[in-house]
Amino acid sequence: MRVLGLDMGTKRIGVAVSDQSGLIAQAVTTIKRDNIPEDLNLVCDLVREYDVQEVVIGYPRHLDGRPGEEAASYVAFGEMLHQETGIPVVYWDERLSTVAAERSLLEGDMRRRRRKQVIDRIAACLILDNYLTWRRKQEE
Questions:
Q1: What is the pLDDT of residues 21-42, one digit of tens each?
Q2: Which of 62, 72, 86, 90 makes the best surface tag, with the fewest CB within 10 Å?
Q3: What whole-number distance in Å separates Cα of residue 79 and Cα of residue 43?
């Protein structure tokens, strides 16, 4: 089962996709946000292109566990995505995913300009990878 992972942001959406077996997450692209209908269309295109059966959206939380300021808008986007595609949408705690992505890119000695171009898709990959790992453990 192929799963799409999204790291939502106010300016960009990082996108990752799993392999067909649902074991490996791979960073795919970054969508520059324009407006909600256009963003939704672009994500729906990716759902069809990759034949996705499930979508995981990073759910922002504060360190104390409270939902972040953008949480409601991400859930609303997920509901629209579900209505448009009919596939399940799961919300996954994204706390510190961007920090982890930044650390990983710094360890790889990537230049600042290039980091800015890829950080959202790397964060989406980390969100998706964490979800896939959790799902495998649930199936054991």
A1: 999 999 999 999 999 999 999 9
A2: 86
A3: 13
